[in-house]
Amino acid sequence: MPHKTNELFARLSLADFQHIERHIRTVEFQQGFVLAHTHQLIQSVYFPHSGIISCVVEARNGDAIETGMIGKDGVFGAGQAYDHKISLNKAMIQVPGTISVMDSNKAREIGDAIPSFRALLMDYDQFLFGQVQQSAACNALHHVEPRMCRWLLRMHELAGPDLPLTQEFLAQMMGVRRTSVTGVAQNLQKEGLISYARGHVHILDVEAVRRRSCECEEDVRSHHRVIFRNHGSGEP
């Protein structure tokens, strides 16, 4: 697996990555696989090369809402490796893909030995926190259509134009009724922005979807640019 497919690995020097590479294994994860439940100990750190990890907050009544997506741009479990290894939310595979997995203790050990690696882990943790904050604001302030377009753009950035999504799953991740998602999806399909069939969404016109999105999509991208501007290549 070429190390440049994960953008954090791509920002490391070749020598630093070769030191890390000995301690990672590559795993194929299927859609729906749960990496961590709320308050579960996390023993591994996950670096996606493809696919998407979804961070989900679950309510006691069974409702849930997605607060962040992690893909080839980052890592899941790094912050926990430096803390109490406790996940404060559910983390699951939203889009299947290939992920490099490292033991949490080893990740912390290597981070202590290689400051550039530790800085990348902590900076991505900061970016993810910013993404969660942006999602909270977006969910509270914006209507379903711009929120859905923002959500599709983030998925497109991480996984490309073909997305394995049911309307039921999309509604659950956005915390809205399925009928609301169905209406928006029908309008976007009618206007030629997306196509939808058999649980798959294909984004036909990315720029048109971006014009219909709220400002949160660009705000998240700007957070990434600011945080990683001193880390070399790999910026989305």
Please, could you describe this protein's structure?
The radius of gyration is 18 Å and the shape is globular. It has helices at 7-10, 14-21, 78-81, 104-113, 115-141, 144-159, 167-174, 178-190, 206-212, 216-228, and strands at residues 24-29, 34-36, 44-48, 52-58, 64-70, 90-95, 97-103, 162-164, 194-197, 200-203. The protein has 2 domains: 3-139, Jelly Rolls (Sandwich), CATH 2.60.120.10; 143-213, Winged helix-like DNA-binding domain superfamily/Winged helix DNA-binding domain (Arc Repressor Mutant, subunit A, Orthogonal Bundle), CATH 1.10.10.10. Strands 2-6-4-5 form a 4-stranded antiparallel beta sheet. It has a 3-stranded antiparallel beta sheet with strand order 1-7-3. It has a 3-stranded antiparallel beta sheet with strand order 8-10-9. The mean pLDDT is 91. Helix content is 47%, strand content 22%. By secondary structure, the protein is of the alpha+beta class. It has 10 helices and 10 strands. A hairpin with a 2-residue loop joins strand 9 (194-197) and strand 10 (200-203).
Question: Which descriptors would you attach to this protein?
Answer:
single chain, 236 residues, alpha+beta, Jelly Rolls, Arc Repressor Mutant, subunit A, four-stranded antiparallel beta sheet, 10 helices, globular
